Amino acid sequence: MGCRGKTLPKLEKDFTQKAQVLEQLAKGWAYYVAQMKAVDAAKLTGHYAPRNSTLADAAFGMTGDQHEHLGQLIAYARSVGVQPPWSK
Questions:
Q1: What are phi and psi of 53, to 5 degrees?
Q2: What is the DSSP letter of 48?
Q3: How far is 75 from 78, CA to CA, in rounded Å?
Q4: Is there a domain that residue 59 lies in?
Q5: Spatial contact of 54 and 46, defined as CB atoms under 8 Å apart
Q6: How many CA atoms lie within 13 A of 60 on its CB side?
Q7: Residue 80 sits in which domain range?
Q8: Which residues contact 84 (CB under 8 A, 6 or more apart)?
Q9: Tens-digit pLDDT profile for the chain (88 aa)?
Q10: Contact 44, 55 (CB under 8 A)
Q11: Beta carbons within 8 Å of 3's beta carbon, 6+ residues apart
Q12: List of residues 6+ apart from 55 with CB closer than 8 A
């Protein structure tokens, strides 16, 4: 079970076609854009629980996390014989 009680798909098994993957990426991006547009700019200052950090600190931390995921994706792609465009 995933967020809010929904059963999440097994991405590597349920989305095997390029068009399916692109559709999921588009849905994820649309969700992100909607969430960012819904932010109340007046609430972007201050410190927040549970780590008493600012939103800027949290965003900086998340970018580092995303780079970790990118590295994992690149390593996985190479392990199955896929070359990133910059390696050709």
A1: -105, 160
A2: B
A3: 5
A4: yes
A5: yes
A6: 5
A7: 41-88
A8: 74, 77, 78
A9: 445 666 766 766 777 788 888 898 899 999 999 988 898 888 778 888 888 888 888 888 888 888 888 888 888 888 998 887 777 6
A10: yes
A11: none
A12: 44, 45, 48
* Within a domain: 48: yes
What pTM value is reported for the model?
0.45
Expressed in angstroms, the distance from the first to the final Cα of the chain is: 40
State how far Cα 24 lies from the chain centre: 12
86 is a domain residue: yes
Tokens of 74: 């690149």
Number of folded domains in the chain?
1
The dihedral sign for the CA sequence 51, 54, 55, 56 = negative
